[in-house]
Amino acid sequence: MFFNEGYSYSIRENGFFYYEDKFGGLKLPLPNILGQFQLENISTAIATIRQLNLEIKDDDIKNGITKIESIGRLQEIRSGNIKDLIKNNRLLLDGSHNEDGARVLNEYLQTLDCNKHFIIGMMSNKDHEKYISYFKDISSVTTVDIPNQQNAISGERLKEKFKNVLNIKYEQNIVKAIKSLSLAENDILIITGSLYLAGEILNLN
Fold this sequence. Notes:
With 205 residues, this protein is of the alpha/beta class.
């Protein structure tokens, strides 16, 4: 099955999107997870369910997409120890660590009209310069070490690789990095670069 041949979707007004395949159309609520790519993923999942005739009801699909847990993937942290450090500002956690992940993360961030501050830690075997090149309109970047990961690049070395980024600095750990930021009202903090870093944030939070 191919997208736009065997199945497709479109975003409609009034907070829903429309899925369609040979079995008919479904008017669906927008999911509880962020990002255009998630609509693509959901549509592919629905196509699979219907093609394989798994006897899952349309109402179950409608209910299910409002209760998805996507941990470490454009996950908004709404409470916890780490969230408390930035008070009323939004905190997004994303484990993207390659070019495709950076691209889709940036696509979502471009829909937001606010200052975007990044905290980034990465593994040493990634294309660091290519990864950071996908992000536009960055207000600041703070690189950090990822604890307990021998194969992670040091935050200091990562800062050197991000030399073309304006307003960049290094802090040894996540808590120091967050406390070093001067966030204005409506600014957003994005912590990204590694699933290992995402796991560390969830543990700390």
